[in-house]
Amino acid sequence: MKKIIMLLLFIFLFAGKIFSQNKTELVFSNQISSEVKTNDESTFSNISCALGGKVYTKYFTSAFYYSSPKINAQDFSFETFYENSKITWGVKALPPSIYGVTSSLYLGSINFSGSLSRIKNPVLTARNPLGTIPIFKTNFSPSLPDFSTGKKNFCSFVNLNFAKKTTAQLAFEFDKFYAANIQKKFNAGKNKFSLSFTQSYFLNEKKFSSSWFSKDKIYPQKYYSYSDTQFDFIRNKFYTSFTLGLSEHPFENFSYYIKNTTTFSYKKFILSASVYNGSPYLISANGSNAKTSFQAEINPRYVFKFKSHTINCGASYFISEEELFQNIQNTCKAQISFQNKKIKLNSLSQISFSSSDFTDSLSFASKLSFSMWNKNLSSTSYIQYKYYDSTNELQLSSAFYPKKNFIKQISTNYNLTVSEKKKTHKAGLTFSVSKKTNSTQINAKINFEYILQTKT
Questions:
Q1: Is the pTM of the predicted complex or chain greater than 0.85?
Q2: N or C end of the chain, less CB within 10 A?
């Protein structure tokens, strides 16, 4: 395996000598890129890498990750290389409890989900019928950075757990936001309740846009108020969650959103439903105009269990309406999976239809995946076809995950996109390695990519 990896690296690193005969320009850094252009076609190839890891102690966990930038060879300079490099770091501290109060502290490039993610993007998205059962996350749910973490300003976070299931949290990102959350959980027999309140202030502004069709008004830079209140109720196999969001608006008194998700299960049957209603002029905390006024989704699923295998079936219907452009989108999905002790087959189909004052559109997607596993290796492969906006797209992918090896993942993919004007071939190969001990973990990833574009 090591010889194969070194051979692939050798081929990509010295491919520049071949490309140079066709006036190809290369830049050798953490990302190596090459480009060839003719009148009818253009090709691109690059290598990108990332390196990082974690250190564990009794009271501290630290993480550091570096990802190479994507820089065109003609524009390469050490200044742009430094500006586009992505370096993320984070530290988590767990001090000893004091008077029954436990705490945790995060510093650095921290990821936040839960109510902070909902404030940034409150609308619903169409889920897969056999996906994770929807549960609205409460509070801020912080995590240390990883390869997928984007560039962030300095963040800090404090969590305090008091007696009687009460939690208080404070979060801050420099020149972005500051927020506080308090959550209370309590039980009454078999009934479980949770009440969570978040108050935050995000720095936003809308600058002038030269687009002639833009209807968004400009507004000055300042910290705007956003609040999110969530109430959860659980009893046996019944779960429901209500969320009310209120936000300061530069031109209206306020804007709002209301969300609800409810899940009920009976034996092998599960039914989930979600509803969203919000101001069509709502400006979310990330500065975008949500424009969505109403959404609803229903998702029934059923499990057939046999001695040696399990079959899961599910379907979903999702509707979304944008009041500004009178745009209505309908999405229907159907999914079925077969699983035993060694393999899993999964089939997913989707069709969407959108209608508005300007145009109508139809999209379709179908995906077939296959997974298998044993003591030493697990793998997942899939083939997927998509049709949207007069564009056909075919995707092929395979990933292998050795279990007793420092190699964490080997994956390859191929993508063919054909539109009215061009055809794009994209192929990629990714290696991920990981080494973990009792106190440290080191991760590294390298990605090879080749793109060919031709006119149709």
A1: no
A2: C
| 17: phi then psi, degrees, rounded to nearest 5 | -65, -35
Q: What is the C-alpha to C-alpha distance for residues 115 and 122, in angstroms, rounded to an integer?
A: 9
Tally the C-alpha atoms within 13 A of residue 392's C-alpha that lie toward its C-beta: 4
Q: Cβ–Cβ contacts within 10 Å for residue 275, how many?
A: 16
The per-residue pLDDT string of the chain (456 residues; one tens digit each, 9 = 90 and over) reads 444 434 433 333 333 333 333 332 222 334 445 555 555 678 777 777 888 999 988 888 999 988 876 555 445 555 655 666 778 899 999 998 888 899 999 999 999 988 898 999 999 998 899 988 777 777 888 999 887 777 788 999 999 999 778 999 999 999 999 999 999 998 988 899 999 999 999 998 776 555 444 556 777 888 999 999 999 999 988 999 999 999 998 887 889 999 999 999 999 999 999 999 999 888 888 888 878 899 999 999 999 999 889 999 999 999 999 876 678 999 999 999 999 989 999 999 999 998 876 778 899 999 999 999 998 899 999 999 999 888 999 999 999 999 888 889 999 999 999 998 899 999 999 999 998 888 899 999 888 888 888 987
Residue 339, both tokens: 């699983």
Which pair of tokens denotes residue 153? Answer: 């300003």
* Residues near 106 by beta carbon (within 8 Å), at least 6 away in sequence: 90, 91, 92, 93, 142, 144, 155, 156, 157, 158
